Amino acid sequence: MIADTLDSLKGALYPEAFRKAFDFLKDLPPDAADGTYPIDGKKIYAMVQSGTTCGTEADKLEIHRKFIDIQYLFAGRETLVWAPMKGLDVHTPYDEEKDYSFLLPPGNVSRLDLLPGAFAVFFPGDAHNGKLSGPAGDTPFRKVVVKIDVSLI
Asked: The pTM is what?
């Protein structure tokens, strides 16, 4: 997992697929409509989402095999949780078409409170969940999840 902000990003350190995703995020207007946006066909795409955070504990964590997630917060607050997947029990078996499996969270997870302009990168094997409430309680949020096919890295 990687956490950073677009403002302090050292783009040259990242592979080209990441730079395409970061350029997209920098150019995307904050009022972009919710929905899916292609960046590089089906290999890199973004999903703009709005909602309200809910609860402070994740009842399951997701993992992916084919895609890397960049989760970027436009507005509001959001708490993300992370744990290495090794040793976690399966909640929902892997769905090849949707590229996810859900795992039961361990007793302790790492928490990251995202503020606007911040992002987290989750690689295959990074069990994670988001849309959780942090210190501010349940809050509205707008975020973008960019999916990058691992074959590009």
From this structure: 0.94
